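Researcher: Before we compare anything, I want clean individual predictions. No alignment, no superposition, just each chain on its own. First chain goes here; please echo the sequence and then give the structure tokens.
Model: Echoing the first chain and its structure:
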Amino acid sequence: MFDKLHIFLGATVADAAARPLHWVYDKKKLNSYIRGKKNIAFFKQNRSPFYSIKTGEVSGYNDVGQVMFKTLTKTTNHKEVIKLFKKNIVKNFGPGSRYWKNLSLRKKYKKIKWKTAMKGPWIHQNILETIKNIKSNNSDQKTKKIIRTVANSKISEQFAMAKLKIIELADKGDKDPVNTFLRNNIKNKYFKDAIHNIKKVKKIKSKPHNFVVKKFGKACSYPGTFNGAIHAIITSKSFKTAVVKTIKAGGCNCSRANFVGAYFAAYKGLKGIPQDWIKKTNPAKSIMKLIA
């Protein structure tokens, strides 16, 4: 069950590396924070303008994966996984959790002038919707709908599947996973949008990464987050280079970093993830225990 766990580790480490500078959309502020700094990964001081957690912890994006990881370590019965996962999502993000503690303030962020980062993790809108869906006792037939709620929409589901296919190719040793994905799915209507966007990224491959991310969008929404990550992947040769590039581009770096980190962990293997970065990542300890 856990023979591919290094890929999840890659996503986790990349997320943690980017997290202290998460959601810094103001380029001038971001540049002022990192100017003259030799190392910008695992930034010691929180600079996210919305929320503050300790360096080494992961964002809510990756924490959903941590919930699934913990779920899989608790049961070997595949029929019980979805049921237990839903229960654990509510436990980790719902009433009584550290995420839920900040909910009232979190709901105001679009209505007030945000002045300082709140203490504690940030719960994402899609997780709020997921909890509401789970607590309404949906049947197994509605599992796909719940998964789409986590992924926000059908288009999010499709781009997520495209990511998984590219990561799978990288894990299998394909020398050029992104282009192989293009060739394999050029006539696949399901991946029409993903194919179209990869082509758009390739047309401006030579442009600076910051320019590309700004052009396609710095936010966590698709297709922008997918495009930014693809550009980091096709213009980088290592895990570290790609993640640092992702951080420097600003905005929702964590959503892009998870894909970038998982890809390079699949492509280069466990040895491709910087060992000192693994040590700085809090959730990595429990993952490493299960990596053969």
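Researcher: Okay. Second chain, same rules.
Model: Second chain and its structure:
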Amino acid sequence: MGLRLLSAVRRPRTKIPPRAPELPFIPVKQTARSSYDEIAEMYHALWANWYLPAALPALEKLFFLGMPARARVLDLCCGSGHVTRELVRRGYRVTGVDASAALVAIARRELPKAEFQVQDARTLAMEKRFEGALSTFDSLNHILSLDELSRTFAGVHAALKPQGLFVFDMNLEEAYSMDLRQWTVDIAEDTVGLVRGSYDFTAKLASTELIWFIRSSDQLWRQQRSIVEQRCYEQAEIVAALEAAHFREIEAIPARDAGVRTDMAFGRVFFVARA
């Protein structure tokens, strides 16, 4: 999976001074490729240890306690495998799915014994059936229409065994009200990452612009760039879409109430449902 990226950069980083020249917000032409493909290594490097430590108390309470040992678990929108690693460590039989071939390639590199598939969550089709499905780091906010979100939930329901557990988190509107238009910079010896977000309160669409400079072996700097979009939904819309997909025992739990103690809890809600 604020934004999957925008919220992540709320941890302390170097920030461009207020009088620094304003970099233009350059539109990126979207193709059939995932918007994460171009900046996959940036995502993996900068957010490897950010989400899971903060979310673990909530995941422990809402998901892990409900999963039997050796259960089959679907990690939907698994990214480069940050949460998948924890699922594997706990002994679950995990299948990770993500639309980004580049992120899946990293996940396979990092977790060679785990199973990964490149699939779009909106057209999910799994041969196996799972005791549980997990989607983390507001990944489902990347689905940009309510109809597509409903189809995603239907695909997850079809992939679960009866009574299968589905847990995911999404951001509501207050999560998108922070850090708007402010560049956040991460500087390392051979890389420089820049991230900033914007939010259209009328359209309820958020964009995160990411620029990644990598120093190559010939000491030249190579640039990678992408814009990642998210949609903000009302909690009632999400619950209604789950009901339409025939989920039951639906709960919506604010991240703070679920045990998240960092600023990642701001505007984030965990949803729990049974197939």
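Researcher: What stands out in the second chain?
Model: The longest strand covers residues 160-171. Additionally, The chain is about 25% helix and 30% strand.
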